[in-house]
Design brief:
This protein is an alpha+beta fold. It contains 2 helices and 9 strands. The longest helix is centred in the first third of the chain and has 15 residues. The N and C termini lie far apart (65 Å).
Length: 167
């Protein structure tokens, strides 16, 4: 009986408010997740350096994921296996095929003293928001013609390096 009274009261209220209750607004159909077409990776190894690293820092390795927008490059980096004394100072994207040294094209914005390795490892992100759009287009068109390189205090020319490829 109470259920019937509740339904009747709701009907009277709806009628008293000027008509039928408004239909609920349907939720928008969710869009599919965007595909990430601008993400590139580099497998960083001391043996990829030119010349290859052969001292204690030869155990350093890592990965770099680089995400491009029209004017920025975001570096998501993980470095592992380094001696406790290793200091990573700077890192960049250079132009050059595997085994060929080339000039810096996009700086990661990492500066000496910005990061500290713990037990020979570190993970960090850096974004260069002032990258040249034409250069980004060129890298995305030919990632194998560019490499990511991180430099240490001992190896100022680079301690780990990897060619870019589509992620």
């Amino acid at each position: 009986m109470r259920l019937f009274a509740g339904i009747a009261a709701a009907a009277i209220l709806a009628a008293g408010c000027g008509g039928p209750a408004a239909a609920p607004t349907p939720s928008p159909t969710p869009s599919p997740a965007p595909t990430v077409a601008n993400v590139f990776k580099a497998d960083l190894k001391a043996s990829n350096e030119n010349p290859p690293i052969t001292d204690a820092e030869s155990t350093c390795s890592g990965t770099a994921m680089v995400t491009f927008t029209s004017t920025s490059a975001k570096f998501d980096v993980s470095i592992t296996g380094c001696p406790a004394s290793t200091v990573i100072n700077i890192g960049h994207i250079h132009e050059g095929a595997a085994g060929v040294n080339g000039g810096v094209k996009i700086d990661s914005t990492l500066k000496a003293g910005d990061i500290t390795l713990s037990n020979g490892a570190v993970t960090f992100s850096r974004t260069n928001s002032a990258a040249d759009p034409a250069l980004i287009t060129a890298i995305m068109a030919n990632p194998a013609g560019y490499y990511v390189n991180f430099h240490s205090g001992v190896h100022t020319g680079g301690v780990i390096r990897g060619q870019l490829s589509k992620a």
